[in-house]
Amino acid sequence: MAVAENSFGGWIMAARELERAGINPHSDFSELTFGGTHDAVIYAIRDGLVDVGIVRSDSLERMAYKGKINLGDFQVLHEHMQQVAESCADFSFLHSTRFYPE
Predict the structure, then answer these.
(1) Residue range 49-58: average pLDDT?
(2) Mean pLDDT, residues 22-43 taken together
(3) Across all residues in the chain, what is the average pLDDT?
(4) Confidence of residue 43 (pLDDT cuts 50, 70, 90)
(5) Domain positions in the chain
(6) pLDDT above 70 covers what percent of the chain?
(7) What is the largest CA-CA distance in the chain?
(8) Is the pLDDT of residue 58 over 90?
(9) Is 85 exposed, middle or buried (0-12, 13-18, 19+ CB in 10 A)?
(10) Are the C-beta atoms of 91 and 99 separated by less than 8 Å?
(11) Phi then psi for 34, rounded to 5 degrees?
(12) By CB neighbour count within 10 A (0-12 exposed, 13-18 middle, 19+ buried), where does 13 fall?
């Protein structure tokens, strides 16, 4: 599940990473759905409605901080281990994609 087909952080960035890995998300998954919001995707994962979800970085941490989820209940797949530019060295959010300017 992703947020929406036009969601940059909730789909487009991850779709690019999947395609670079040789995975076609439109044909290689048994199902591809869109939840409409980052929170809805996270709740769907937590509740076992979907196996995998795509949300922008900081979504999990924000919801955990507010007490809505337990961060330990989630696992980030393919956590990105790129060399981080000095300007982003203090970026502490979980992420699976390269950095993009915001």
Answers:
(1) 89
(2) 95
(3) 82
(4) very high
(5) 8-88
(6) 75
(7) 40
(8) no
(9) exposed
(10) yes
(11) -125, 130
(12) buried
Helix locations, the chain, DSSP H: 13-20, 38-46, 59-65
d(CA 22, CA 46): 27
- Residue identified by tokens 């950095």 is 99
What is the rounded CA–CA span in Å between residue 92 and residue 23?
Answer: 28
Res 20: pLDDT: 87
Contact 50, 3 (CB under 8 A): no
Q: Is 7 exposed, middle or buried (0-12, 13-18, 19+ CB in 10 A)?
A: buried
CA distances from 85 to 82, 90, 91, 99 (A): 9, 10, 10, 10
Amino acid at 13: M
| Rounded Cα gap, residues 95 and 65, in angstroms | 17
Alpha carbon 16 to its chain's center: 12
Q: Does the CA dihedral 24-52-71-43 come out positive or negative?
A: positive
